Amino acid sequence: MKKALIVQGGWDGHKPAVVADILAGALRKHNVEVTISDTLDAYKTLPLDSFNLIVPNWTMGTIARDQLQPLLDAVAGGVGLGGLHGGMCDSFRNETDYQFMTGGQWVAHPGNDGVTYTVQMDGEPSPLTEGISDFSVTTEQYYMHVDPGNRVLATTRFGDVVMPVVWTKMWGKGRVYYCSLGHSPNIVEMPPVLELMTRGMLWAARD
């Protein structure tokens, strides 16, 4: 049985505990054993290499070097990393090594919450998006600084700017998956969003 660690916390506006439970439920349906922690010390006290997947769900905040380095090393060694929205790519804003690993960093959400936009499955062909049609969502629209080496699977538009929404990349031997949707639990629970997240997390865990 594969094993996943979800580390949740940080800014409470993203309802990290609720989102962690949603993601854990999706993984458990695929026979993944899930451990949920509410402390960043999990990264230094748990044997990270015993997990197939780590799901960071911690918006903003700070992380100590002795917490961050084991996470960087575990993913580089082959543990998968998969997450969404600010829980993965608006964490620890001063930690450029973390941003290098995840492939991006939030910088703005013009219009704040309540913007209606289309998520387009127009990136590289992938089993992670196969059969999922373009869909409309009303929520925050993330404008991000992104790694040009990411493999972009889905996008949105800011005028003429094509902005990645879903991507994959490698960090050493570890697979990394990210989806910028997920400002609130009801968005995470949208069928196409939860399907994207489930596929992505399982892919990162090498299922």
CATH topology: Rossmann fold
Level-2 CATH architecture: 3-Layer(aba) Sandwich
Mean pLDDT across residues: 98
Write down the secondary-structure element order.
EHEHEHEHHEEEEEEEHH
Low-confidence stretches: none
Number of domains: 1
Fourth-level CATH superfamily: Class I glutamine amidotransferase (GATase) domain
Q: Judging from the principal axes of the Cα atoms, what is the shape?
A: globular
Sheet having the most strands: 7 strands, mixed
Content of β-strand: 25-35%
Tell me the helix content.
Answer: 25-40%
Q: In a few lines, what is going on in this structure?
A:
By secondary structure, this protein is an alpha/beta fold.
Topology (elements, then pairings):
Layout: E1 3-10, H1 16-28, E2 33-37, H2 42-45, E3 53-59, H3 65-76, E4 80-84, H4 85-89, H5 96-102, E5 104-108, E6 115-119, E7 135-139, E8 143-146, E9 151-158, E10 161-171, E11 174-179, H6 185-188, H7 191-204
Parallel strand pairs: 1-2, 1-3, 3-4, 4-11
Antiparallel strand pairs: 5-8, 6-7, 9-10, 10-11
Task: Give structural attributes.
two-stranded antiparallel sheet; 207 residues; seven-stranded mixed sheet; alpha/beta; Rossmann fold
Please explain how this structure is put together.
This protein has 207 residues and is an alpha/beta fold. It has a single domain, classed as Rossmann fold (3-Layer(aba) Sandwich), CATH 3.40.50.880. 29% of the residues lie in helices and 33% in strands. Strand 1, helix 1 and strand 2 form a beta-alpha-beta unit. The protein is globular and about 45 Å long.
